[in-house]
Specification:
By secondary structure, this protein is an alpha/beta fold. Helix content is 41%, strand content 15%. The protein has a seven-stranded mixed β-sheet, sandwiched between helices. It is globular, with a radius of gyration of 21 Å.
Amino acid sequence: MSVNPVNPNLFATMSSPIMDSRRWVDGKTFSDGMPLINVSQAAPVDPPPAPLREALADAVLNDAGAHLYGAVLGFPELRAEVAQQWSAAYGGKLDAENVGITSGCNQAFCAAISSLCGPGDAVILPAPWYFNHKMWLDMAGIECRVLMCGDDMLPVPEQAAELIDDKVKAIILVTPNNPSGVEYPSALVDAFFKVAKNAGISLVIDETYRDFHSVTGAPHGLFAKDNWQDTLIQLYSFSKAYRLTGHRVGAIISSTARLAEMEKFLDTLTICPNQLGQRGALFGMQNLGNWLGGERREILDRRAAMIEGFPSLEGWTLKGCGAYFAYAEHPFEASSHDVAKALVEEAAILALPGTMFSPTLAEGGTGHAERHFRIAFANIDRAGIGKLFDRLSSFSMP
């Protein structure tokens, strides 16, 4: 018997897929002729644009509040700016009191779930899922009712309704989706809202990648609904839009009553969000709209390059593509986990297998996990995408 007991929920939680995949390349040397193509993670690798860095430097030198504890739910000016811009973008009415700022979008998710569920409660989680969502639910002892997406990578609202009982407290959606990249149509999001509202549960929508949606205008109309805050909780990240990954700034939009409960969680965990990061996010929102538009156009061009190039890959099938991700079915008999390791060794490609995003056969899955890959293309340009296709075309399992 161990003298140092481990929380059984934490012990049973999967290891971080990003950390696991990094170990596959630790200590390996890749040739100049075939350098590693890393499509495992889509976080921006460049620093924020120069004007934002200058604003951060000015805050370090001249804004005493940037170095002190702040409000638990965030910098008031940033909360007000989010409310104003969201109201305009979604055609609804949000107040600053509907907005909370968090230490990244992962913390926003954890805060939302902690306000909704206790151990033994359940949520409906579409698969393939964002792995950190699944990890937090497992750590917290919350049951995941897995809702497998169809071949089009879209979850079905009617199937979600069939999974709801007294234990279910929320439905989780991510759009544009991580890992599949698929953008959920407005009508589909609306249908899930109706399912949640009719059941008296919450709909939690992670819109981390909303700034890179391929369609202009509001991606859904939920904020224009009467009493939206009784059902909807939205999550957002400033990390992708303004390259603020290291500053950890996210947002959560909900009812004032629910945010008051989340405030307890956030106060206990981090006391307040990163003060510099919040000032950077505010500067970005107020000054970098044109720059962000250019970033969006570049990501959409890379998305187009993925869609254009995929037909050249014999046996591979593109299932979804958008925001930062492509999701594809591979042609090999082996599990995606084994194919992923072989890709590192034989083709110098680091990509994440579907076993990190869906239940495996051993876990009662349907085989989806073993057949698919996520390719995070946001950090490789058209030329890099072409090299990726060249290597995949010539790859075969050893």
